[in-house]
Amino acid sequence: MALKMDRARLDAVRQTIRADITAGLYHGVVIQVARGGEVHLAEAIGAADLGQTSPLTMDSVFNIFSVTKAFTNLLVLQAVEQGRFALTTPVATLIPEFTSRGRERILVWHLLSHQAGFPIIFELQPGWFIDDFAAVSRMVIAEVAPVDAPCSKVAYSPLVNHVLMAEALLRTDPARRSYRRIVQEDILDPLGMRDTSVGLRADLAPRKVVPDFRGNYPIGHRSRNTPGPNGAFEDPQAEMPWVGIVSTTPDLFRFADMFRTGGTANGTRLLSPAMLELATRNHTGEMVNELYAARGREEGIEPAPAYIGLGFSVRGTALCPHMFGTLASPRSFGNYGAGTSLFWVDPQRDLTFACLSAGVMGHNDNMRRFQKIADMVISAAD
After folding, report:
1. Helices (H), the chain
2. What is the pLDDT of residue 3?
3. Which of 331, 333, 328 is nearest to 377 (CA)?
4. Model confidence over 159-198: pLDDT tens digits?
5. Do 59 and 66 meet the contact criterion of CB atoms below 8 Å apart?
């Protein structure tokens, strides 16, 4: 028996998004929602720009920002299943020069759950170039050390954790492939994600939405190859395992729905059910996420539990602000990217949600936006 969704309530989702765009909260979205694998909502609403002169389409290409981390996380979990290293392997075992100053205590699973104890670093130096992974990795390995003991805090890592995990992947890959090639061969090809790439592939450029940060994220993202303060997001050669993938909503939906079906898609297993079950548990207890707690305090918002698994955000049980919605089941899981990008899976209701948007929002506004939409979507599930 097919699982149903209430059409009138999904129409209300569309109307709410249109009203938000009219109010100037963001420029537009491309959204896809399915239950039991059956798509009930797939629509491009609004535009790529404030003036609404460039309408979005279902195949519009977006920078997915930190949703890139979900791809690196999956590769790490795959490497564990392949026996290349363990969740409990010290990072210094995989990267021998990453030792001393307390770094020898950091394990792989600490990186996945944002409990390694590193300071919250967006830039290692002002105005640096981030397109060249080898150069960024050398700098992280040489300079970054923890400021807290592992598992004493949850401090979301904008880049350091995923630089280290990507470096570990490269050093243990039997074929000595690049990050770009590993993502392509081990994730994108099996899932048929033809409109996704590491760096802006040339054929995707005509459909690409240039991020409008609107002052919400003033940090630069410079490239040696492409001019401008955020040139790295338009650079076809860039390899940034923490922030550098571009995709479409239908492709991101394929990625998310693979997790809903237990790690298998198109007859190919990308991850085992056993690993997925472990990775989507809450591994941070009731500790708050230090980065987002600080953002919330700016508006008097009470800090909420971080609820992070091994490479996934998890909904958890607290009645608190959450991008997956207050109605989501506790084991719902997914990933999000700065002010624009989100996917989640509610396994209890067999729901898959993917959304990419134009007009970068501040964290708190983005939280409220996606929480509202998620609750409306979940309430449409019969």
Report:
1. 7-22, 68-81, 91-94, 108-112, 133-143, 160-172, 179-183, 189-191, 249-260, 273-279, 290-297, 363-379
2. 84
3. 328
4. 999 999 999 999 999 999 999 999 999 999 999 999 999 9
5. no
